[in-house]
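Milestone 3.1: sequence recovery, worked example.
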């Protein structure tokens, strides 16, 4: 018991030092590297005393701390030191709670909150730049994601309907939230790095948000911007390679039991794409271009279309597999992959019972991704120039050959 108390005090001091170090660097007049450890220790001691004397000890400690903050700010105000911010004061109160939580709550929660406070304080300038860079459309994107997740999802029934028992509104919308959330993450990352990021990052972000949308955008730009053809082709190839990493993450979150069965063949395809992308880098010889801003991925209309598409693919996969076996699943994957590989991926994993012990799910996913490559090549043919089309045909052709080799040579 005594050793546990010393561990609690040690963690309390370390968390206080972590936050205090950050505050000291900002020359904060309220609390710094010495004060914050004392605050967390006060919270821990109040938590320890509360076990013997009751919860009023914690409340009294919090009130006393708030009174000290009030007195300190009042003295600063009289001295003419006017600072409208309350960040440090709130951090003080939170750190007192962290110190208390080390004793009365899960220590892991206290450590996580303490670390989060330090990170938030340190990210002041990047967060301010991020907010400054946001426009009305960006706020709309975030609010629409809140609508998709916190408003629509809770009211949907969590039960199956229709033949084959595969249409579950709650689970369908969970898929929508997962895909839109991943795309929104790429959109937010773009806001942090800005439009002047390099070609590589443009391709990576494009693959996270939507490799198809990225292909459309840069196929058009290759015609509009002189000398940008090779850079546009490289960005499209990088985005198409990142697609496989995105699919593995998607499977790991939505169907973790099936990940071991699909990770190796899809990972091999990803490795082949990396090699082909490396060849594209040598081809482009450090070509670069300004990356374009992605569209809002959290549009309600987009979410509804995505949900409807997933439901159709899910139902079609179940029906086709029931009537035609794995071949039916492959046919649906090829057709569905033209527009949305994410929907095919989760539908294929669900058709495998979430375990994907047979080869059918990963083969369906790979076929869908190859179908999507062919579709994106068609986009380039329509929207891009001849030079870009030649480049994409060479790169995508090599990628498709790698996919065919994996499908042919991989053990059943």
């Amino acid at each position: 018991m005594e050793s546990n108390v010393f561990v609690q005090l040690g963690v309390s001091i370390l968390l206080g030092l972590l936050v205090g170090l950050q505050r000291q660097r900002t020359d904060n007049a309220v609390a710094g590297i010495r004060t914050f450890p004392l605050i967390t220790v006060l919270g821990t001691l109040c938590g320890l005393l509360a076990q013997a004397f009751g919860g009023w000890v914690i409340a009294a400690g919090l009130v006393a701390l708030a009174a000290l903050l009030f007195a300190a700010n009042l003295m600063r105000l009289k001295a003419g030191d006017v600072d409208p911010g309350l960040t440090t004061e709130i951090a003080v109160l939170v750190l007192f709670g962290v110190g208390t939580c080390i004793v009365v709550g899960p220590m892991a929660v206290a450590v996580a909150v303490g670390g989060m406070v330090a990170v938030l304080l340190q990210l002041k300038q990047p967060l301010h730049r991020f907010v400054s860079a946001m426009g009305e459309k960006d706020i709309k994107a975030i609010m629409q994601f809140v609508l998709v997740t916190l408003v629509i999802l809770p009211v949907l029934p969590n039960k199956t309907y229709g033949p084959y028992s595969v249409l579950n509104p709650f689970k369908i919308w969970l898929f929508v939230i997962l895909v839109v959330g991943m795309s929104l993450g790429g959109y937010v990352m773009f806001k942090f790095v800005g439009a002047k990021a390099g070609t590589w990052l443009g391709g990576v972000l494009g693959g996270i948000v939507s490799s198809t949308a990225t292909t459309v955008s840069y196929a058009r730009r290759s015609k509009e911007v002189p000398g940008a053809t090779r850079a546009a082709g490289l960005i499209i190839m990088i985005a198409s390679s990142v697609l496989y990493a995105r699919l593995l993450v998607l499977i790991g979150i939505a169907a973790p039991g099936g990940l071991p069965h699909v990770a190796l063949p899809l990972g091999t395809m990803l490795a082949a794409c990396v090699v082909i992308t490396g060849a594209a880098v040598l081809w482009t010889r450090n070509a670069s271009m300004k990356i374009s801003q992605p569209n809002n991925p959290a549009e309600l209309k987009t979410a509804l279309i995505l949900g409807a598409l997933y439901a159709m693919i899910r139902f079609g996969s179940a029906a086709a597999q029931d009537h035609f076996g794995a071949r039916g699943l492959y046919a649906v994957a090829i057709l569905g992959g033209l527009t949305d590989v994410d929907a095919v991926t989760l539908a294929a994993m669900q058709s495998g019972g979430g375990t994907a012990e047979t080869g059918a799910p990963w083969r369906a996913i790979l076929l869908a991704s190859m179908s999507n490559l062919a579709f994106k090549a068609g986009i380039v043919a329509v929207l891009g120039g001849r030079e870009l089309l030649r480049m994409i045909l060479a790169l995508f052709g090599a990628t498709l050959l790698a996919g065919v080799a994996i499908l042919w040579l991989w053990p059943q």
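Confidence is low (pLDDT under 50) at residues 353-357. DSSP finds 17 helices and no strands in the chain.
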